[in-house]
């Protein structure tokens, strides 16, 4: 399974692509950080993000997309930008006809570190170790996107297979 993970952000949006199967180590395919200029108008920033994410989906041809679910923050302006970037990421996957799943930061942290309370440094260290990288992916947005992709391979892949098996048992249709 090839998964494109997105750590949404309006100024910096991390994108990580991994290949793997549940219960096995994943393999790094690529990672990117899409940046937009904070001085640009919002429509131009969202368009830039949409164009680049669409290009990356077309380039990597993932089986599915995993996006970090926006969580509550005290800074409304920050959460709005993150929510808008998240919507663009979900749309890029949906437009390509791909299954899109969202995960909370705690779900991702628990999947890659074993603790939903892990900090960014712990997530980056585990992503580096799990993907057997010589050095940590930088910036942290890229490491977070790779963690999302790993989380989806390990958790979402199993969830998707169970859902397909349940559907097949009920309807006789394996899709």
Q: Treating each run of at least 4 consecutive H or I residues as one helix, how many helices? A: 5
Using only C-alpha atoms, the radius of gyration works out to: 16 Å
Shape: globular
Question: What is the number of beta strands?
Answer: 5
CATH architecture tag: 2-Layer Sandwich
- Class computed from helices, strands and strand pairing: alpha/beta
**CATH topology name:** Nucleotidyltransferase, domain 5
Q: How much helix, percentage-wise, in residues?
A: 40-55%
Pick out the low-confidence regions.
Answer: none
CATH class: Alpha Beta
Round the mean pLDDT to the nearest integer and report it.
Answer: 89
Structure description:
The chain contains five helices and five strands; from the N terminus they run βββαβαβααα. The chain is α/β, with parallel strands linked by helices. It has one domain (2-171): Nucleotidyltransferase, domain 5 (2-Layer Sandwich), CATH 3.30.420.10. It has a five-stranded mixed beta sheet, with helices on both faces. A hairpin with a 7-residue loop joins strand 2 and strand 3. The chain is globular and about 50 Å long. The chain starts with a strand and ends with a helix. The mean pLDDT is 89.
Attribute tags:
175 residues; alpha/beta; Nucleotidyltransferase, domain 5; 18% strand; globular
């Amino acid at each position: 399974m090839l998964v494109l993970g997105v750590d949404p952000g309006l100024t910096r949006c991390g994108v990580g692509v991994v290949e793997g199967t549940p219960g096995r180590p994943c393999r790094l395919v690529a990672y990117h950080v899409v940046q937009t200029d904070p001085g640009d108008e919002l429509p131009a920033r969202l368009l830039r993000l949409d164009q680049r994410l669409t290009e990356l989906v077309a380039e990597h041809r993932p089986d599915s997309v995993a996006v970090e679910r926006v969580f509550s923050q005290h800074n409304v302006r920050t959460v709005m930008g993150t929510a808008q970037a998240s919507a663009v990421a979900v749309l890029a996957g949906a437009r390509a006809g791909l299954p899109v799943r969202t995960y909370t930061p705690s779900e991702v942290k628990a999947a890659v570190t074993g603790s939903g309370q892990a900090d960014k440094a712990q997530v980056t260290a585990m992503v580096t170790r799990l993907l057997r990288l010589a050095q940590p992916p930088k910036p942290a947005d890229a490491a977070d996107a790779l963690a999302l992709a790993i989380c989806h391979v390990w958790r979402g892949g199993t969830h998707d297979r169970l859902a397909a098996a349940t559907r097949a048992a009920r309807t006789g249709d394996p899709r």
